[in-house]
Design brief:
Elements lengths: L18 H12 L2 H5 L4 H16 L2 H7 L1 H23 L12 E2 L2 E2 L4 H13 L3 H18 L11 H8 L7 H16 L6 H16 L13
Antiparallel strand pairs: 1-2
Helix pairs in contact: 3-5, 4-5, 6-7, 7-9, 7-10, 8-9, 9-10
Length: 223
């Protein structure tokens, strides 16, 4: 007895797509982030083109047409141009965002200090003092990171940051500690905060912005 295909379990055999279907499947697969991230950069493409050009340039026929010295000079000029491109665009450059991480005080937050201050002021305007205090203390930490005065670990606490920040600003050690306590109170203990407490944290932030840090004599003052 011959059983139908479905009865023999062959209904689960996948259908083979036609040409258009296969192309669409391939396009969807190649559009995934992991494939896009693996695409060669402009620098990679230029470097490859340069290598191909040198390979063609120094073949026997081309060398005979140009002369050996002309080919060498052209190669040196092009190599210098490629090095200049790599130095200008291919090498990671130091910037204000270099030390800015995506995790700050136990939460994913990559906003700049100015953005955090603006959000804190908006929360204060709405009398959401807990949010305002949290945002303003984050602004303190982010500002110090942007000035290369602080490089906290991803799990650093508010108290850890206040102690590290007191090193370049010893006169602000007590104020930094109070600001960290205010952050912990509203962030973890559920206290509502107040306008006076927010103003204390904001004033500390403003003073730190205006102060020149006291660094080790061996380290240049850059902030």
């Amino acid at each position: 007895m011959i059983l139908p295909l479905a009865a023999r379990g062959l209904s689960a055999i996948p259908l083979i797509p036609d040409g258009d279907g296969a192309r669409k499947l391939a396009e969807r697969e190649l559009a995934k982030p992991e494939y896009q991230a693996a695409k060669p950069t402009v620098i990679d493409q230029w470097a490859r083109a340069f290598v191909d050009f040198l390979n063609d340039l120094f073949t026997g026929k081309n060398v005979g047409g140009l002369g050996p010295w002309a080919a060498i000079v052209i190669g040196i000029v092009l190599a210098a141009a490629l090095i200049a491109v790599l130095v200008m665009w291919g090498r990671p450059r130091r910037s204000r965002t270099r030390a800015v991480g995506s995790v700050l005080l136990g939460a994913a937050d990559d906003r700049m200090a100015a953005q955090l201050r603006a959000e804190a002021e908006r929360a204060a305007h709405d009398e959401d003092w807990a949010a305002a205090i949290v945002l303003r203390y984050r602004a303190i930490a982010r500002a110090l990171m942007e000035r290369d005065l602080l490089s906290p670990a991803p799990g650093a606490t508010a108290q850890t940051i206040s102690r590290e920040a007191a090193s370049p600003f010893p006169a602000e050690a007590d104020a930094l500690h109070e600001a960290a306590v205010a952050f912990d109170d509203v962030r973890y203990l559920g206290r509502p905060g107040s306008a006076a407490l927010y103003r204390t944290v904001a004033d500390t932030d403003e003073r730190l912005r205006a102060l020149r840090p006291q660094l080790d004599e061996r380290s240049p003052v850059t902030a």
